[in-house]
Amino acid sequence: xxxxxxxxxxxxxxFITMKTFSLKEKxxxxxWYLFDATDKTLGRFASKIADKLRGKxxxxxxxxxDGGDFVVVINAEKVKVTGKKRDQKKYYKHSLYPGGLxxxxxxxxxxxxxxxxxxxxxxxxxxxxxxxxxxxxxxKVYSGSDHPxxxxxxxxxxxxx
Length: 161
Known about the structure:
The protein is α/β, with parallel strands linked by helices and about 160 residues long. It has helices spanning about 40-55, 85-90, 105-110, 115-125, 130-135, and strands at about 30-35, 70-75, 90-95, 100-105, 140, 155.
């Protein structure tokens, strides 16, 4: 005589576990992207660059790992701003001496050092923690269309802005 016993166990979905994927530094695959800033609005494309530098556009994004790509920006002097920002937007620098605050308008900075405009916009959009400098070092900004990163074969990247 053979008796077959069957049991059905109802497991609540709350107790079924899945492992969360966490990207490791050694598993990061970095690409090089070329971005032309001609006639692009400063804040809109700076946020796209910040996302690309952090790796937020990748499916394996991990907040505590620098998993982003390298971004080369050319024609930094041709960036545009909306409204009256060309005259009213200010950039501040301090000499660390009393009364040493120096102020420049956007139109003056874009003539003297156009790379600083894009760098400061992107840097303000990165997280304020230990990874910030590591992420920011992957941004390369140049005024003009020439850049020294041809050997990395950067692919042209035109995000929808």
